[in-house]
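note to self — DONT lose this again. spent like an hour looking for the file last time. sequence + predicted structure for the chain T wanted, 764 res
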Amino acid sequence: MKILSAWLFAGLFAPCSAYDYVLIGAGEIELIDKETSIPGIKTIFKDKPALVSVSGIEWEASETPTNTLSLNWVTLVDGEIVTSGSVDLDSSSRELLTSVDAGEVIISDRGRSTVEVRLQVDNSSASTTAEFQVFGAGAAIAPLLIILFLAMTTKMVEFSLFTGVFVGACMIAGNINDGFKSTLDTYILGAINDEGHVFVVLFTLFLSGMVGMMQRSGGMLGFTRDVSRFATTPRLGQAACFAVGCFIFFDDYANCLLAGETMRPLLDLLSVSREKLAFLVDATAAPVASISPVSSWVGFEVDLIQQEIDKIIEIESIRQGVDNPEISIKTSGFAVFFQSIKYRYYPIHMIIFIVVMIYSNRDFGTMLIAERKARVYQRKDGGDGKGRASELEEKAENQPKDDTPLRSWNMLLPVFLLIFFIFYLLVKSGEVEGEDQTIMDKIEVSDSYVALLWGTMAAAMCTLLVYLVQIVKDGEFVLPTTVLSEMMSNVLNRDTDDDGVSKTRPLMSVNDSIEAFLFGMGRIFPALIVLTLAWASGAIMVAVGADRLFSAIITNGIEAKWLPTLSFVISLFMALATGTSWGTMSILFPLILIPTYDAANGDETIFYAVTAGVLSGSVAGDHVSPISDTTVLSALACDCDLLAHVSTQAPYAAFVSVIAILLGTIPIGFDAFPNIVGLLLGWGVTIAFIYLVCVPVISETGKYDILTELYFKIRGGDDSPLAILKEDTAKAFSGELVIKEKNLESSGSEDEEDPILKDLDDES
């Protein structure tokens, strides 16, 4: 007996005669949301139509040919027939069907429903069933609301994320038992098993291991010492951090991890809070990478845009009846990407906001409180927002040996190697044999995951060699030629004699480098747990239908002039809910670009502004989402508590988003004034807000900004932590040394300062 089973997409056929085969299997049911065309949905919204299809139909050779020319199908919901039809086999050239569209279903009752499809050809038949949970569309954001509520009340991000995934899994499964199982074996395991996620985890581990090597070599302390001679104030230190973030423009992951890890010691020394560091790193990572014409984002974004442009050309070709139709927009995906940059209001205004904020030395809201807790009490440990890895550093683990010379090049050279390898591999992985490509062409089609993974490990291996060939004796570097024989005997051994006297040794032996590499990897393991749970949370939000909920809003006949604003707002909330800017772009571009072109009658300004709205809104939502990978990575690299990072960054992101809407997407949609005028007005309002609403971190009166003062008057008191901090701020302004009281929730012991940082502080 010969069984032919074809598992192909809808519309594909296996070349076999229908007369000589009978049905033996109906395959699997797949539901497609009719309103948004999103396939593979796991749940059904109450009173919303879902298209039913069956794929993987199985046939068996029959010795008795049939005379039936049609395949009949019936779709049932909970045992009741809701629709039926047939497929003419003769019209398919008498070939075996592998898939069938089986109508649509609309379910009005909440709860568990069974969808069944029965197929019949002559006397042979087969059926397939699937169960789906039915609930109202608004319930799709329940897991996100639970995550946010628990995160704010319990301050336990791991518990909050896991609970959100568990609740979403129970919503899909319909019961707690199956929900618990799928939480572990479907969503958490799926997050770990995803190839792209594995690349990110390995890249993060390798880079963190390399940072551990740079720390042990004394390079990071040397860099901190040298930069501290110039960046002698918190303002200059923050400016240096922002400059590093802009310099690493080609990838947001590399930006987050590299800028955070390398600038953390310097900003700790300058009493800048970890929350502020994490904000500077996060707010320059995705915004810079997303608008840079040369970055790992470009290829992905351009490909999504090009796919929709090709569809528009095809549609217009049919409408105009010509092979090369005239359309009003650019026909190149990269050209559209380039045209959209000037309408990317959120990343543009965010960059300006950071520059003015650093220059003015002002803050507001939760960030102001975090900064004052660090600056007023001159804390060198990052303040109350420091993460768990700081506890290891405070124990003086992985510190340079006492006789290690502190030299900046032992950090700068590995960083240069890392940037070189990543950039080189970005270009190399985008080469297409036989094509004449520019560097930009290669980067557009490059594999950023491969470049990051290979580049990081290559840089780590080269760094090991760099440290191995540098010879140290009596606290100074010496030439290897004079002590070659003594050095070689110590390459794989300990670095001191039994009496503790220093001897000639490599800067770091192989054993030292491996220990430091493993230490760096181990330090970020707790954050990788959060990252995995964040990925699982994003997957559960899509599974329960959050993407369909937001997408449906866009496709419901909105006027073209509102589309730039709507695309930005929906992208923001979808990225907030799913934790992925790239996923948001992938969902929304197919839904919105073609309707935008039609609704705007080909208006190129509206089309480019909508494209920019999706791209920039995705970044904005990514910034305020506690389940976003870049948010988690920024907190990880800066060793900042994740909830502290989100709660201090969200007000800034919200302000910039409002400016982007009021002076960007709305005016450009209504053609109120030229784009450059909107940008200038936005910059003017940003400057005015910072100087009129924000207040200096250290001020004569210690007053908070108007919003924080209002909260203080409602909830505070004369003996509240905010009142004490306000008084101490005024004392610090007058030059008085303020000692932090324990009732201000001290997270560490300030009197046990790292002696190395103390020496650097004294020297600077």
